[in-house]
Specification:
Order of helices and strands of chain A: HHHHHHHHHH
Distance between the termini of chain A: 40 Å
Oligomer: homodimer
Radius of gyration of chain A: 22 Å
Number of strands of chain A: 0
CATH topology of the largest domain in chain A: Tetracycline Repressor, domain 2
Number of domains of chain A: 2
Number of helices of chain A: 10
CATH superfamily of the largest domain in chain A: Tetracycline Repressor, domain 2
Largest sheet of chain A: none
Chain lengths: 232, 232
Amino acid sequence: MDTNEPEDDPVKEAPVPRRRAQGLGRDIIIDACLKLAGGSDADALSFRKIGKAIGADPTALYRHFADKDELLLALADRVIAVGMEGYVPGPRWEESLRDLMLRTRASFLRYPQVATLAALRVTRQKGELEFIEAMLAALELAGFERREAALVYRACGDFMLAWTGFSAGLVLLGEQSAQDDNAWVRSYQDVSEQQYPLAVSSVALMAGVQDEENYRFALDLLLGGIAARLGN
Amino acid sequence: MDTNEPEDDPVKEAPVPRRRAQGLGRDIIIDACLKLAGGSDADALSFRKIGKAIGADPTALYRHFADKDELLLALADRVIAVGMEGYVPGPRWEESLRDLMLRTRASFLRYPQVATLAALRVTRQKGELEFIEAMLAALELAGFERREAALVYRACGDFMLAWTGFSAGLVLLGEQSAQDDNAWVRSYQDVSEQQYPLAVSSVALMAGVQDEENYRFALDLLLGGIAARLGN
DNA sequence: ACCTGAACACCGTTCAAGT
DNA sequence: ACCTGAACACCGTTCAAGT
């Protein structure tokens, strides 16, 4: 618990803002980073660029975070926490699960640099705790007992995180290197139709699927599988 | 180019291996890269390290690949192709889908550096074509018509690729930065049980789930959802 | 106590030069 | 025709030095 940890000392040593006029602090840095992220610059979160953004030497960051990894975890947790704002569990567990797995993804995709770098990490902080608690509550409502709920949570959580990291990578790739759908279709014009009849005849259909609708489609399949599992 | 070979050869200008004694060529480079990948070195695939491995200057690679991206796509396609070796479609479509989504993942995870860097790319080459053709054949066998099959293919393919990239990232993170399960459990000892009762009481269960079983569990949920979709 | 700035060991990539 | 090696513009990180 690195965020707002309750201090043991009774007197509560004051923050001593003496040198805090232009001083930093974790939250100021996190705010600046999230302002930097979101653009199309794939490595907007380098220490040198962050340093420029906060008007301090890049290495000043080491005064507040042990290393880049710790900074990224803090960013990821804040992104999750922001995504949880305004969440209210509904009466139907499927809707709650779906809501949680869409809103957290959406929040990450607003900061794709954070998503690519930290989506595979467990932050073990406030935002993640709220997300987990809400997911488990929905699964309990669905009728899963504890062990089963833990399994399903892991499947859903990692499904969402993995796919979101994947999507963020696509966003940051951008137009680069002919990743676009047209290039996919075009490159299949030289492919032997005898050898790969299904692939060739379906390439336009496959390429036409956008990532966001694809995620929602897969998510609904997954939720359908969970519901089916409850059935028996 | 005068060679030692008989001249004026009218038929099929020979490959002329004159300067090919230590010469390179794409396949030699790809073989060397796959030998380099697989270890625990997260950036084993830097141009400098590849250059050392093939006994050539790092920049010699630019003679055979336009840039690193093109090299990675070639590597990824080879990894997919290797994964497809020995695949035979079975009579049951669910089993074929499952097989394809396990063997391709397994092949990628043998070369985690390739998986993290290229799992989100469409290679548009031989290995990927074989994979797509086999997947679509299984879905046709299941009874999906073309448009539906394309949708389900995209969901399954990206599910597998996204999660595999995620898993490869975990592998390369390794023991680093306390990503391990024990750290997760330990860090929850300070968490308020009143505020997050479900999360705290389930952390050991959640942390105990290994990535590979988690993937298989989610995969079965997904396949279950696909089967349910066919039902109506 | 906090920040600076040079330095270190790395990246991918370019380009004039070698043979 | 193919390869080399210095150079460029970047990384994250360390550490002695400033105030």
